[in-house]
Amino acid sequence: MQLRPEALRFVLAQGLPATIEVVGASMEPTIAQGAKVMVVAWPEGTERVGEIVLLATEGGVLLLHRVMHLFEEAGHAYVVHQGDASASEFAIVPREAVLGRMRSFAAPDARLSPTPERLDDAARARFARRRAACRVLVAARGAMSIFGLADRSFSKNFGRRFRALSRRVLG
Predict the structure, then answer these.
(1) How confident is the model at residue 144 (pLDDT cuts 50, 70, 90)?
(2) pLDDT given at position 151
(3) Three-state SS for 78?
(4) What pairs with residue 94 in β-bridges?
(5) Are 106 and 124 in contact (CB under 8 A)?
(6) Which of 96, 167, 94, 100 shows the shortest CA–CA distance to 137?
(7) Residue 63 pLDDT > 90, yes or no?
(8) 21: which of 75, 104, 118, 150 is 20 to 30 A away, CA to CA?
(9) How far apart are CA 92 and CA 90, in angstroms?
(10) Model pLDDT for residues 25-55, shown as the tens digit of each residue
(11) What is d(CA 93, CA 79) in angstroms, rounded to the nearest whole number?
């Protein structure tokens, strides 16, 4: 049975943690497919770049990804996220799409969430490179909207090309 984002949002809003099993490979090697992780609410004002969050896409798919950047545009808050896997791409979602943040791995492992401070040197360097590329993406997106170029098809095409370039350059 598939976990519904609305049900998970309700549970987390009650202050209860939720344990979920990672079914995809977008966070490998940091979080292995099949790992069980503990997710808690992500209250407004506690957001931090580098945290791993659980978010729901427009199609209701749940993703466990790392926060690469936070920004506001036209009075709305947005989160740029990306998995740790080398093939993972940047994406931008409204802040409301984030259901919660990863607190730890579930028992018996019970390690804390792999925030940037807890990553090894190579993974921390990769995060820093990806974060820098993400800042460029957000700045370019903002410039496009200032000059009236941010129609949806142009923005999607730009984002796709930027992600392809960043994958080749940053790994």
Answers:
(1) low
(2) 47
(3) strand
(4) 78
(5) no
(6) 167
(7) yes
(8) 118
(9) 7
(10) 999 999 999 999 999 998 888 889 999 999 9
(11) 5
